Structures are given as C-alpha cells and as structure tokens.
Amino acid sequence: SPPLSTFGAGKVILLGEHSVVYGHPALAGPLSQGVKARGVPARKCQLTLPATMSRAQRAQLTGAFLRAAKLVGEPPVKVSLDPELPLSAGLGSSAAVSVACARMLLCAAGREPTPKEAGRLAWEMEQEFHGTPSGVDHTTSAHEQLLLYRRAPGSSDVGRGKVVDSPRPLRVVVALAGERSPTKKTVGALRERQARWPERYQRLFAQMGKLASEGARAVEAGDLEGLGDAMNVNQGLLAALGLSSPALEEMVYRLRGLGALGAKLTGAGGDGGAVVGLFLEPEPAVDQLTRLGVRCFSSQLAGPRAT
Ligand code: MEV
Fold first, then answer.
1. Does residue 137 have an active-site annotation?
2. Which of 7, 52, 142, 221 has the fewest CB atoms in 10 Å of its CB?
3. What is the pLDDT of residue 83?
4. Which CATH number fits domain 170-302: 1.50.10.20, 3.30.565.10, 3.20.20.210, 3.30.70.890?
C-alpha cells in the first residue's frame, strides 16, 4: 500500500492559558503550520526520529507513541515526523505531534481518524508529555477550528470545545521572544503560588475565564477591536500572575506598535516563548519583524479565507 501522510496543527491560545488548567474557558485556534507524519508499511509498529533530537526527547516521544499504538493494536507501520513548527515554543508542537501520530495510527489500523477519535488517542500521548494538561492544545489541533474550550470538571478526562464562528478573517502574527521555559515548570510554579494564596489567584483566573467568554462573543459579532482589547487585558493579568518577562513584554509592545489590535504572550509564558498579535493585515508586520531578525510568521485562525 502507498505511504500514508497525516497532519497535526499547532495552536495559539488567544485568551485563557493557565486559567484553563483551573477549569475556566479558553479561546484557542489552529495554526496552518503544524507537524506532518509519514507512514510506510513495516513489520512492526515503530517511530523513527531525527538524530538531531536529544536522547531524552526521543525517549519521551517514543514512550508516548507506543502508549497510543498499544491502544489501536500496534498496526504494522513505520512512522516518521516532519515538524514545520518550532518545537517547544508554546505553539502546541507536542499536541501537533500527538495528533499527527494518532491520525496515522488510526489510519494504519483501518479506522476513521475523526477529530473525536484522533483527539482521544492524542490525549493519551499528551499525558506522557505534560503530566496534567488541560487538553486545550490537542483538542484544538484535532478539531482544527477556533474553540472555546473548557476542561471536564473534577476529572482527569479531556474537556469539550465549542466551535466559535467568525464572520471576519481572524489573522494573527506569532513571534518568538527570549529563552523558552518548560511548560511543566511554569505550570508547577504557578500551582505553588495559587496553593499559598488561593483566593487572590482564583480571582485572577476567574477574570481570565470571563475575558475568554467575552472574546468568543466578540469574535462571533465580528468585533475584532473588542477581541484585541480582551487580549491586552489578558496580558496584564498574565503579568500579574508572574508569567511574563522583559523579553515577552518587549515583543508584546513591538506588536502593538506595529498595529496589533491586541497582543499577548501565548502558551505557558515564563522567561520567553511565543507572543501573538491580532492584525487586520499581518504581512507588513511580519516583513518588518523579519528584517529585524525576529522569528515570526502569520496565520489565519478562523473566518472566511481569500481564495
Ligand atoms: C499550554 O499551551 C497552555 C497551558 O494552559 C497549559 C495547559 O492548558 O495544559 C499553560
């Protein structure tokens, strides 16, 4: 049989990272950039990884892959990965890998790779990467739609995403800034602070959840200015939670200076990582930033596409 090819999209969180871990809604959309998986028939089910990856990274990925493979009867396929997304930048690369592999394993097992099935299998892989992820990353990647996502209350089960329709193109610039901190570390440090001062932190999480719901309504009403303002306020709250840094703040202000309707860190934050800006016209900003040596790209998360 011919080689199989599958894809897992990266994601950006527009509103509500971190508070989503504590049960509040988050607004997240798929990137057109992601991770491709290629599969060829083989004697046993296996994953081949580039030698450029660290031994620890390869061990973790292989462990996650085999965990998912067992659940679909270890179909005889040799899988390789082709990431077109910066890995470990807070853009959902691990979820993209998980979704690409899950779709591949389902296809190889002769099963339909529906968003639900692929999402469920990718969730198994995500456990190996993160410990206790909210599920927003791989759910957004598996559905490839703008979602208002909420984790399942009081359980380790995956949550639910409600599709948010946008009458207008929702276009963003994603730029990388500073040295990235591991998500596990950022999430863990925040957990300690919130355990020590629960009411203070719960108040901020609730505010962030409200912004995500309001942002989803703004999207549906075509009010991109309203969405942008919610993103700016969300950035202030993320800074209040101790999740921003000088490098991230500088990039946020740069994007606003280039005309972003709103800009904030996206993903886990920490010392560095990814910043997202909402733009009516992203191209001039990408050109300008690229000239200055910033790693960046644009993507459309939702809404009608120019053909
Ligand atoms: C990471 O993309 C988003 C976080 O909210 C963690 C999670 O949701 O599991 C920081």
1. yes
2. 52
3. 84
4. 3.30.70.890
Answer whether 268 contacts ligand 1 (Cβ < 6 A).
Answer: yes
Ligand 1 test: best mutation among 187, 191, 244, 276, most atoms within 8 Å of CB? 187
Confidence label for 130 from pLDDT (cuts 50, 70 and 90): confident
* Cα dihedral: 184, 290, 226, 273 (round 10): 10
Strand boundaries in 90-230, DSSP class E = 147-150, 160-163, 170-177
The residue type found at 217 is R
Atom of ligand 1 nearest to the CA of 92: 2
Residues shown for the chain? 307
Mean pLDDT for all residues in the chain: 93
Helix (H, G, I), strand (E, B) or coil at 22: helix
**pLDDT tens-digit series, residues 143-153:** 999 999 999 87
Q: Phi and psi for 80 in degrees, rounded to 5?
A: -125, 155
The complex's ipTM works out to 0.97
267 CA from centroid of ligand 1 (Å): 6
Strands 273-279 and 170-177, bridge-based pairing: antiparallel
Instruction: Indicate the domain borders of the chain.
Output: 4-163, 170-302
- The CATH number given to 4-163 is 3.30.230.10
Å from CA of 194 to ligand 1 middle: 16
The active-site residue out of 82, 137, 271, 287 is: 137
Element of type H or E holding 46: strand 46-48
